[in-house]
Specification:
It catalyses: D-gluconate + ATP = 6-phospho-D-gluconate + ADP + H(+). The chain contains 8 helices and 3 strands; from the N terminus they run βααααβααβαα. It is mainly α. It has a single domain, classed as P-loop containing nucleotide triphosphate hydrolases (Rossmann fold), CATH 3.40.50.300.
């Protein structure tokens, strides 16, 4: 199954909201809480990485974290009516969680010490360097240091009109 198939909303009803950002920004926590709040499915991109890739410590979050425009374009193909550049009408929306390198590195180090993730803190800088956001994409950038429940509430409010007429 192609990666974009996981995000393929029904063009008449579905909406996919991708919570993106570097490792340690809180994507999994926020996305799981958002799915719960909306009563919709939750896809954890890390579940689709091979054990071999995790074991090598590669910067595997790059593609699943949507750090680059070309990766987001692949994800946007989940909307079969999407035409490149038609960001506003695309049914795949992006919310980017951002925090300082120090905050992210601290989170990643704590998580690694607890045995909770394969991403080493040494790759945080490279992920931050790869992150590219073009204002034309309309990606919502959110401070990842605010409580996750507040991010979820703001995200639901932002997409309220689209969500009111769709099933997640």
């Amino acid at each position: 199954m192609a990666g974009s198939d996981l995000l393929r909303p029904d063009p008449a009803t579905g909406l996919a909201i991708v919570i993106m950002g570097v490792s340690g920004c809180g994507k999994s926590t926020v996305a799981a809480m958002l799915a719960d709040a909306l009563g919709c499915g939750f896809v954890e991109a890390d579940d689709y990485h091979s054990h071999a890739n995790k074991g090598r410590g590669e910067d595997v979050a790059v593609s699943c974290s949507a750090l680059r425009l070309k990766y987001r374009e692949v994800l946007r193909q989940g909307d079969i009516s999407y035409k490149p550049g038609s960001y506003e009408t695309c049914r795949v929306k992006f919310v980017c969680l951002e925090a300082s390198a120090e905050v992210i590195a601290g989170r990643v180090e704590r998580r690694a010490a607890e045995g909770g993730h394969f991403m080493p803190a040494s790759l945080v800088r490279s992920q931050l360097d790869l992150l590219e956001i073009d204002a034309a994409e309309g990606i919502t950038v959110v401070d990842a240091t605010v409580p996750a429940h507040a991010i979820v509430q703001a995200t639901v409010a932002q997409f309220r009109d689209e969500l009111a007429s769709t099933a997640c």
